[in-house]
Write a structure and sequence with these properties.
Elements lengths: L2 H13 L24 H43 L2 H22 L4 H21 L2 E4 L11 E7 L10 E6 L1 E4 L2 E4 L1 E6 L1
Helix pairs in contact: 3-4
């Protein structure tokens, strides 16, 4: 062969791409990871850890509840102990007025001015009670009601229309916010 032919042959081989044959490789199947179940000892350790954690949570919750209970109990005791403070503070000016009236009586002051002073003290006290929702129970002439009245005695009614009604009030009763604070002691007509 001539050199020329040999070169052409080489060139033609160079131009023709070599076709590689694909070899069929078997498809790789994903290997399943083996899931191993925990051993009984590992499961026991996990469960014990969970139980310990739940115990801690329970103890913290119980401690919080105990603190809450103690705090509310202390607050209730403080309210009971000091709850009447506002009421008593409001009565002190009336006590001062009564002391002044006693001093005026001791000095032998004018009887009319003493009576007027006592009326003012009474009005002041009644205004204070009303501002705290304490109202007197009107009894005389009303039908006898066991919810608000306490019968001290019975008396023959002067007229037929006064039977079962209050003839006289021995001691006034008082209501606080529609609740009986003190029952009125009354004489009932029979």
């Amino acid at each position: 062969m001539s050199k020329k032919k040999q070169e052409e042959n080489n060139n033609s081989q160079a131009q023709e791409p070599e076709v590689e044959t694909e070899q069929q490789q078997p498809e790789e199947q994903p290997q399943e990871e083996e899931v191993t179940e925990p051993t009984p000892e590992e499961m026991m350790a996990q469960l014990q850890a969970q139980v310990e954690e739940e115990k801690k949570k329970y103890l913290f919750l119980m401690a919080d509840f105990d603190n809450y209970r103690k705090r509310t109990l202390q607050e209730k005791q403080d309210l009971i102990k000091n709850g009447g403070e506002k009421v008593l503070e409001g009565i002190l000016p009336v006590v001062d007025d009564i002391e002044r009236a006693i001093d005026a009586i001791a000095q032998g002051g004018d009887l009319d001015s003493l009576k007027e002073g006592v009326d003012l003290i009474h009005n002041k006290l009644m205004a204070y009670l009303k501002s705290n929702h304490v109202e007197p129970i009107e009894s005389t002439g009303a039908l006898f009601d066991t919810d608000v009245h306490e019968a001290v005695t019975t008396f023959p009614a002067p007229s037929e229309d006064q039977k079962g009604k209050v003839i006289d009030t021995v001691q006034k009763g008082y209501m606080l916010n529609d609740k009986v604070l003190r029952h009125a002691k009354v004489v009932v007509g029979q």
